[in-house]
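Incident review: delayed structure delivery

Summary: a single-chain prediction request sat in the queue longer than the usual turnaround. Root cause was a stuck worker, restarted by the on-call engineer. No data loss occurred. The affected request and its eventual output are reproduced below so the record is complete for anyone auditing the incident later.

Affected input:
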Amino acid sequence: MQDLKIIISKNITALRKKQKLTQAELAERLNYSDKAVSKWERGESVPDIAVLKTIAELFEVSVDYLLTEDHSDYIPVHKKVPISKRNRNLITLLSASLVWFLATAVFSFTITVAPDFRHEWMCFIYAIPCTLVVLLIFNCIWGHGKRLRFMYISFIIWSVLLCAYLTCLLYFSFNFWALFIIGIPSQFIVILWSGLKFKKEVK
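Output delivered after worker restart:
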């Protein structure tokens, strides 16, 4: 068992360094503490089978690769074509642009079909929270960062409140300014939520 611990520790260390990841970065991807990763790499403990499978998928190797010392006859597993950072950003921007394309289409249709209709520009205001939701979704998909994710959530809250306020004011002639009070506890909840940490520690 001791030999297996050393083999696993060497393989994890080698794969991590090959990907140019720090122990903290690997720990974050695995939702574990950096202390746990440090113990694995020192051979003091071994990840359970579920974590080994996750590590293997992360580094695009098989679980058997992590358990063996000699990789001379190893056949790589099927690799997914990675999406570059530039392409991820372009996909995100294209998706966000689609929201504004639809808003522009609605605006153009409204002023053409119903020229007497007032406040058609509101479709661009409604596009703001929709765009932020798209950015939030892609942030979660690409894993661009926790801080940015909660920033999007904050902007979504305030933009939705703005849309609701303007809708009440323009279409119902009701100045419901108290709506913005809801944003204060909501923002406080987001700030507290962003401070939570969910990392597992191994003994």
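Verification: DSSP finds nine helices and no strands in the chain.
Action items: add queue-age alerting; document worker restart procedure.
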